[in-house]
Amino acid sequence: MNFQVTVLKILVSYPDGFAMMAELKRDMAILATSGRDWAERTKRLAARVPALDIFSQGLVERLNGGWRITEEGRAVLKLMEARPAEMRTESAVPPAEPPAAKQASSLLAARRSGRSQRLQRRRAARKRARAKAC
């Protein structure tokens, strides 16, 4: 079973894309014990995006004791689930790099600047919280 694909599939099944850790663990346990079909399916999906990293690519966010799938995460999951025929009709000319790799690299580049800004805001908030505590 591919952990990252499973997380994306679980999160997308929730109405707002957010699940608490307890819910994620419960759903993951159910899927992990559901048989070989799930494990084989997640391996096939993961093979379409070999460099998948749901956190560093900004596909999943950690929020308030849980995780939430982002719009980028939904797009990558949709790309992974596209049937080969659907992928071929999207572009008549084969791309120089696989669409999944191109999508992942563009997502990563787009998220880098936003991520550094979020990190700076988090650090500043922690610093303010420490100052208040003293």
Structure description:
With 134 residues, this protein is mainly alpha-helical. It has one domain. The chain is 66% helix and 8% strand. The protein contains six helices and three strands; from the N terminus they run αβααββααα. The protein has a three-stranded antiparallel β-sheet with strand order 1-3-2. The radius of gyration is 17 Å and the shape is elongated. Residues 86-134 are annotated as: Disordered. Residues 112-134 have a biased composition (Basic residues).
Brief descriptors of the model:
134 residues; mainly alpha; 6 helices
Q: How many E-type strands?
A: 3
> What does the radius of gyration come to?
17 Å
The tally of domains stands at 1
In the sheet with the most strands, the strands line up as 1-3-2
- Element-level helix/strand string: HEHHEEHHH
Alpha-beta classification: mainly alpha
Separate helix tally: 6
Summarize the structure.
The protein has 134 residues and is mainly alpha-helical. The protein has helices spanning 3-13, 21-32, 36-48, 71-81, 84-90, 99-133, and strands at 18-20, 60-63, 66-69. Mean pLDDT is 79; it is low at 91-98.
Q: How do the strands and helices of this protein lay out in sequence?
A:
Blueprint: H1 3-13, E1 18-20, H2 21-32, H3 36-48, E2 60-63, E3 66-69, H4 71-81, H5 84-90, H6 99-133
Antiparallel strand pairs: 1-3, 2-3
Helix pairs in contact: 1-2, 1-3, 4-6
